[in-house]
Structure formats: C-alpha cells, structure tokens
Amino acid sequence: MGFLRFTGFSVIRAWQGFWRNAMMSLATTATVVLMLVLLSGLYIVITGLNSGLSFIESKVGITAQLVGKPDQADLTPAQLNTLIAYTRGLPGVKAVDYVSPDEAMQRLKEVYQSRGQTLDLGNDPKNRITIYASIEIQLTDPNMGESVATALHERSEVAQITTKQDELDKLVGVINLVRTVGLIAIALVGLTVLFMIVNTIRIAVYSRSGEIEIMRLVGASDSFIRWPFILEGILCGLIGALVAIGLVAVVWDPIQPVMYDVFKLPTVVGARFLATLSALLLAVGLAVGAIGSWISVRSYLAA
Amino acid sequence: MSVTTRPMTSEELAALASGREADAARETVISMLDAGVTYPNGKIALSEVDVTIPRGDFVFLVGASGAGKTTFIKLLIREVQPTAGRVVVAGRDLARLRRREVPRLRRRIGIVFQDFRLLPAKTVFENVAFALEVTGASGAEIRRRVPMLLNLVGLHQHGDHLPTQLSGGEQQRVAIARALVHDPAILIADEPTGNLDPVTSWEIIQLLIQINVLGTTVLMATHNQEIVNAMRRRVLALEDGKLVRDEPEAAYEREY
Fold first, then answer.
1. Facing B134 at nearest CB: one of A2, A210, A224
2. A214 — contact with chain B (CB < 8 Å)?
3. CATH class for domain A60-163?
4. DSSP assignment, residue A88?
5. Which residue of A6, A217, A303 is in closest CB contact with B99?
6. Which chain B residues have a beta carbon less than 8 Å from that of A219?
7. What is the per-residue pLDDT across B71-88, written as a single tens digit (0 to 9) for each?
8. How do the domains of chain A map onto residue ranges?
9. Complex ipTM > 0.90
10. Is the pTM of this model over 0.80?
11. Cβ pair B181, B149 in contact under 8 A
C-alpha cells in the first residue's frame, strides 16, 4: 500500500514535471528519438550486411582457371574429364561445373544487362578481353575450401585459383567499418542526449527547489524527493523510445523492397526482427533517461 | 534528565499505546550537553551549550543576529551536525543519527519561519496536505487531518484560497498548520512574527500558546522584546555562540 502510494506520487510528479517545462522536455525527447532512429538504421544495415555475409559464406566456392590461350579450350575433352573426375573425388566438393570461354562471355554480358548496360566490344582487336575456360566448384562445407584449393593448385591443368574468400574479407571489412563509424556516431549523439537529460532534470530540480526545501523540513524521505526526478528522465527516454518505435514501424513496409534490393536478401524481414529492434530501442531509451536523471539528481540534489 | 513520579496523562498513555514510548517515557525533548558547532571554514557558531528542555515547555531563544540562534535551530533539525558534545532531540542522539533516519526525526519537529515558506501555486489545503503527501500519508488520512489542522489554526474556511489571497498572519497560520501535520513533539518558530504587525503578532503568539497547552513543546527564536517581556516564559540567550542566560519566567534582557 505504501509502495503503491509512493509509486503513484512519484509518477504523477514526474508527469507534472515533464509538462511543467514542456519545451525543454520535448526537445530532450526529440534528441532521444534522433539517437534511437540512428541506432535503428545502424541495426538494420548491420543485420542486412551480416545476412549478406552468411549468404556468401553458404555459397562460397572455388573457381579454377584452366591453362591455355585466351578464348580457347586448350584441354582435350579427355583431360578435362579427368580433371573434373579428380575434383569430384576431393573431400568437401559438392558439384563441379565446366565453364567455357563462350559461356563466361555470355555471363559477363548478362551482368552488364542486369545493370542496364550493354557490353559492346566491337570488332577492334585492341578491345578484346581475355576470357579463359574454368571449372567452378561448389563446396559442401566452406571450411574445406582451403584443402580443395591446395589440391587443385598442384594440377598442371590449373593455371590459377580464385576463391570467394576475398569477397568475404571485403564484406567483413565493410561491416566492421559501418559498425565502428555507426557506433561512434551514436555514442556522440548519445552523449548529447545524456547532456540534454542531465540539463532538463537540473532545471526541473531548480524549479522545484521551494518544494524540495519544504519536503526536507517536513521529513520526506530521500526516495520521495529523488524518484520523481529520476522518473521524469526515464519518461523522456520512454516517450522517445515509443516515438522511435512508431517511426520504424511506419517506414518498415516501404523499406522492405529497398532492403531486398540492397542486400539481395529477405532475411531481415519478420515480426521477430521488429520485436527485437523495439526491445533494443526501449531498453536504450529507458537506460539513457535513467542514467541522465540519476547523474543530475546526484549532482544537483545534494542531500 | 529529570524523572517524574506523577501518573501519566491520558495523552501519554495513548502515545505509549501507539508506539511512541520514547517520547512518553522521557520527559526531556531537547537536551544538549557541552554541544558545539564549528563550521568547516573554522567559524565557531556554537560552543559549550548545556540545556535541557522538558516536554511541554514554552521557551524563547533570544540573541543578536549572528549570536548563534540559527545554528541552534539547524542543530535541532539536524541540518548541521554537532562537532562537539551531545545533542539528543525527541529521544534521538543526533551525532549517531544516520542520514536516512533524519526524515523520521524531522517528523517529530515542526518548524515555521519568518517568511512562511508556503508554496505559492498550491491552495491552503494543498499546502498542508503536501506535507502529508510527501511523507506517504494516505488520501483518507489527508482528508481527515488537514481540515482538523485548518480548524485548529482558524482557517477552515480558507482551504481553497491561495497563499497570496491571505494576510501575513493567515499565511503564518497555514505554515503552523503544516508544521503540525505529523503531531510533532516540538514546534520551532524562527522569528514567526518578524513580518507581522503587533496585533497580528499577538494573534500568532496566542495560537502558539494554545498549541503549547495541547502538549507540544514550543521553541521560539525572536527579537520581539515586547512579546518576551509580556509572556514571562523561560528565556535562553545566546551571545557569540555561547548560552549566556537560561532563566525561567524571564525578560528579553537581563534584569539584574
């Protein structure tokens, strides 16, 4: 009963305090929203890149470029079959496909087409690009790539080996960069938000200094004096988080196709992702509100 | 500490029954033994103060500005801590009192000031209710106690007024009602008539006497010679932080 009364008292006073200096409280809440929207953006992008990463990991394969002159299949069919049979026998290999220079050229053209461009090399021999025959190997387990590559390297039919490892490394690098830059940006915004909350609560404490003095004199306990202010800061975080969650929910459907286009993957879709993100925003909003007001109460409400 | 042999009054018995043994059994509500306060900057505000105030006393605290009256009062409500000696208020040794026990002490002490210190945005009723609300009283308790207290100070018809709509004397009455919300053992009045005209001042004094008669110990710091001389109550006089006079039925100034 006493605790209920205390909670009721604190919540009502926090609510009154929030609207008592509405401009300041709303400005602070807006910075909370800004921070959480940034955080959402980072979370979505990182999740998208990560699922791109796992997609590539799952499709990781090896391309072995075969010996010979450009645009010519130098190996005899028998040699080729031997090589393919050998490769199929290696542990960790799922499938082996032969790609002739013509096929490779066709693929290249398709890539250009998908970008809306045309690959027109004309008839000038200077414009010729060299395309070699190759075999493409799919793996059952990405971790076996190393041993398969080593085995193929020793074959005389193989000129050069490329794996998707480079792409993977590049993507990992991009993810790390985005994450680092994003977190630094959010940390800076977070500091601003914290400062805003500390200031808002400081002003709230000053504007209630008369009441606080009376409370002390009539024997109000510290919790009655402090908690309304802490809750007022938490309220800024809570309202900010709810607004941010609302914004994310509103833009969620429109950004889905964009997400798919950018990351080529539908993996981020789903209510669970949205729920996780909402929980994250709520937790961060409440935490920053609580920490900011706690700092303020500790500093400006000296006992 | 004096021990009495008279039978307990019904009020004391009621207090005992409601768990306030400490106050009922001990007749002394304020006791200072060689008490002193030296501020961190080295200023000696009070030193070697020995005083015992029994329950139900009406005591004037006099002395020039800077003599230590304010520190004396701050010491009682534990706004400052004794740096020497022993101070016991309402059964609590203030040197040993933990920080979180201070609110409980303050509920045993009511205090009013020269400038009333009412909350201007709150009505008379709300000002008094606030003191109950912030100490966790229930709505039912507030609705029961506040009208009773406003009745005691003669303002039961002014509950809806804002402090600014009241005269100085009426505002001080509201402050007194607020100081009494927790039924304190001691009422401290720090220059309660400092802002009031003589007639209103006497009305406030009458009210304090009435409260004193009802059993609350009253300690009033004042510069008002006329009142002290007319009342002939116990007088504590401070000078340069020392208690230079402690006289029953005395006047504002030494008479011998």
1. A224
2. yes
3. alpha beta
4. H
5. A303
6. 102-107, 135, 182
7. 999 999 999 999 999 999
8. 2-56+169-300, 60-163
9. no
10. no
11. yes
